[in-house]
Amino acid sequence: MEAIGTPLKDWDIQINYGIKTGFNDAFIITTEKRDEILANCQTEEERIRTDELIRPILRGRDIKRYGYDWADLWIINTHNGIKGKLPRVDVNEYPAIKAHLDQYWDKISTRADKGDTPYNLRNCAYMEDFYKPKIVWGNLNLTASYAIIQDNSFINAPSPMIVPASKFLLAVLNSQLADYYIRHLGVTRNGGYFEYKPMFVEKLPVPQSVDAKVVTDIESYVDSKNETEIDKAVYMFYGLTEEEILYINQKVR
């Protein structure tokens, strides 16, 4: 694998953790609470701006293999801005959100992970990546469980993400071979759980040049969730022997 592939850390991609709020109870809300905040906006203009600031969010437990189950949770994205690109959110321009966060003042004002004000989230240089298609996964899993989020949903740390997303890379990550490789970089915990940290995932060697027909086939297998064919294709472009394939199949899942 290492002779054929290039470690993901050397690809033109970004591998990062999800958003950290410092106090989820204040910044991650239910649909009911979101609707309440929007209803408390004094003008339609404020309601529209506030709605744009509240984004869907997934937790690690919501992310499944090739998909996810959204739990109707939202994040109040009062980000701290990006120097030279994006100004910090001024909560005073969002009175309904400020009123909600003020209920948690004692907690948000003393938390370590905060921005320039207690109302702001900590600095995040890759904030814009949350609005792009991304490969996401839960930090702790029994087996590889990667999915693609096409919309602008956020994910909550410690779940990681890869930007940009591709079906080809998604298939490789979910393959038996890649999972075997990654799981041998760390230690499996009680119950068979493995911590799929970026420091392990980024070491996975993946070929950057694969025959276009193979890539097209793999993408179609992802669409149909045909994992048997995905594994066959991955074994093929890594050039594994029948004996090596049998060994891997016996070791994973």
Which secondary structure elements does this structure contain, and how are they paired or packed?
Elements lengths: L5 E2 L6 E4 L6 H4 E3 H9 L4 H10 E5 L4 E2 L2 E2 L4 E4 L18 H8 L2 H4 L25 E4 L2 E2 L4 E4 L4 E2 L4 E4 L3 H8 L1 H8 L10 E2 L2 H4 L3 E2 L5 H13 L2 H12 L3 H10 L2
Parallel strand pairs: 4-11
Antiparallel strand pairs: 1-14, 2-12, 3-7, 4-7, 5-6, 8-10, 8-12, 9-13
Q: What is the CA-atom radius of gyration, in angstroms?
A: 21 Å
The domain count comes to 2
Largest sheet: 4 strands, antiparallel
Strand tally: 14
Helix content: 25-40%
Shape: elongated
SSE run = EEHEHHEEEEHHEEEEEHHEHEHHH
Please work out how many helical segments DSSP would assign: 11
Q: Which structural category do the helix and sheet elements fall into?
A: alpha+beta
Instruction: Show unreliable segments.
Output: none
Q: Alpha-carbon distance between the termini?
A: 20 Å
Structure, described:
- The chain has 253 residues and is an alpha+beta fold.
- The chain folds into two domains: 1-19 and 131-253, no CATH class; 20-123, no CATH class.
- 36% of the residues lie in helices and 17% in strands.
- It has helices spanning 24-27, 31-39, 44-53, 95-102, 105-108, 167-174, 176-183, 198-201, 212-224, 227-238, 242-251, and strands at 6-7, 14-17, 28-30, 54-58, 63-64, 67-68, 73-76, 134-137, 140-141, 146-149, 154-155, 160-163, 194-195, 205-206.
- Strands 2-12-8-10 form a four-stranded antiparallel sheet, covered by helices on one side.
- The longest helix is centred in the last third of the chain and has 13 residues, at 212-224.
- The chain is elongated.
